[in-house]
């Protein structure tokens, strides 16, 4: 495998900012990793989203208004052309398939797409469920168990091994897979640090942190930490 280029390629808006006839309305709370995943994807692709805040900590996702939009009462939710998408992975893929004509985030070719999808599915089935369980219990006053922390670190081991074969999680450049994973991983890092042997994963994370779009993620993490600190202070 080729060595990493010491000059980091930065990903700002890679395509001309898009003007879309019908608004793309994104409902969400920036404290949520899936919401930040969609926001970062749109930012990189230069897609303007009409963001509507749904305060999870205020229970706005449980209101009748929002239940009528998304019966699952979860975020994010994208409305476009009177259609609704209610999963962050589906939303991000829709944005890429519809507007990523230069393959900035979603590669051409069946196998390359499968490698990218593999990480999206891993996030949906493994990474994010652990994240969600840890924070749901935290806000209920239950700290993460040693077993759950071990589950998380083992889940990261898969990505560490992945980075022995690829420069990024799905190939030789940053793609949708990396944006998806970093939203979840950065959230859990607020409470559980990487293990010492996660050397390649730490380098991967540090490189993404330098990207302009990562400011979106930082903003959401700051919002999350405001509520976690409040919960700590009440304990």
UniProtKB/TrEMBL annotation:
One of its GO terms (biological process) is glutathione metabolic process. Gene3D superfamilies: 1.20.1050.10, Glutaredoxin (3.40.30.10). Residues 22-103 form the GST N-terminal domain. Keywords: Transferase. It comes from the Eukaryota. Residues 109-227 form the GST C-terminal domain. GO terms for molecular function: glutathione transferase activity. InterPro entries: Glutathione-S-Trfase_C-like, Glutathione-S-Trfase_C_sf, Glutathione_S-Trfase, Glutathione_S-Trfase_N, GST_C, Thioredoxin-like_sf. This is Glutathione S-transferase 1, isoform C. The lineage of its organism: Eukaryota, Metazoa, Ecdysozoa, Arthropoda, Hexapoda.
């Amino acid at each position: 495998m080729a060595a990493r280029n010491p000059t980091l390629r930065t990903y700002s808006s890679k395509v001309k900012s898009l003007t879309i006839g019908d608004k793309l309305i994104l409902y969400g709370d920036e404290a949520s990793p899936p919401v930040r995943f969609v926001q970062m994807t749109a930012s990189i692709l230069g897609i303007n989203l009409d963001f509507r805040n749904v305060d999870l900590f205020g229970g706005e996702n449980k209101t009748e208004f929002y239940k009528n939009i998304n019966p699952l009462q979860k975020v994010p939710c994208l409305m476009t052309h009177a259609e609704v998408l209610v999963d962050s992975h589906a939303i991000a893929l829709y944005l890429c398939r519809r507007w990523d004509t230069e393959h900035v985030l979603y590669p051409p070719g069946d196998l390359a797409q499968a490698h990218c999808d593999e990480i999206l599915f891993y996030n949906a089935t493994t990474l994010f469920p652990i994240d969600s369980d840890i924070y749901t219990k935290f806000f209920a006053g239950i700290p993460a168990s040693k077993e759950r922390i071990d589950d998380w670190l083992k889940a990261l081991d898969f990505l560490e091994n992945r980075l022995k074969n690829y420069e990024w999680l799905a190939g030789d450049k940053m793609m949708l897979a990396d944006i998806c994973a970093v939203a979840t991983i950065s959230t859990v890092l607020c409470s559980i640090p990487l293990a010492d042997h996660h050397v390649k994963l730490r380098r991967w994370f540090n490189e993404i942190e330098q990207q302009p779009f990562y400011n979106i993620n930082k903003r959401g993490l700051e919002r999350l930490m405001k509520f976690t600190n409040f919960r700590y202070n009440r304990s």
